[in-house]
Amino acid sequence: MKFFAVATFAGVAWGAAAAQEMSYGAAEYLNSCAVCHGVDAEGSGPLTDALMKRPPDLTGLAQRNGGRFPYQYVFAVIDGRFDVSSHGDREMPVWGRQFLEEDAKLYGPSGGEVVTTERIHNLTGYIESLQR
Predict the structure, then answer these.
(1) What is the pTM of this model?
(2) Which single residue of 13, 34, 116, 122 could bond 99 by disulfide (Cβ 3.0 to 4.6 Å)?
(3) Is residue 35 within 8 Å of 48, Cβ to Cβ?
(4) Cα separation values, 105 from 99, 101, 116, Å
(5) Confidence of residue 10 (pLDDT cuts 50, 70, 90)
């Protein structure tokens, strides 16, 4: 019994240490994006076969943009609340709206908007860090 408790504590401590090393952007990506884009961000998540269109490889965004990461564009695509309808239907969820709904419950309408914006910045920065 004593060994089990020590082993369990060691496992929890290791898990907490690993979680502390993960950035907010990485955690958000794994929670919100990896199911479609894949853990490796190359467009091969577990839901890929169920989608009408394959998600793009997010690791080559800078390469496809002349070597510069299109930060504002990626931020706007993730947020999705301010898309121009003439650009066609969205393939992915409007994360800005979904995040805001969660965040406003915890922080109120104004605080929710601030937290939502920060979540999207963290996520965009993480995707920027994945560029090849």
Answers:
(1) 0.80
(2) 116
(3) no
(4) 10, 7, 12
(5) very low
Domain hosting residue 92, numbered range: 24-129
114, two tokens: 């601030």
| In-domain check, residue 72 | yes
Strands, E assignment, the chain: none
| Model confidence pLDDT, tens digit, residues 11-70 | 444 455 555 689 999 999 999 999 999 999 999 999 999 999 999 999 999 999 999 999
The identity of residue 86, as a single letter, is S
Residue 6 in domain:
no
- Domain annotation covers residue 8: no
Cα 102–38–13 angle (5° rounding)? 70
- Euclidean distance between CA atoms 11 and 45, whole angstroms: 27
Is the separation of the CB atoms in 114 and 126 below 8 Å?
no
Structural domain includes residue 4: no
Cα of 26 vs its chain's centroid, Å? 7
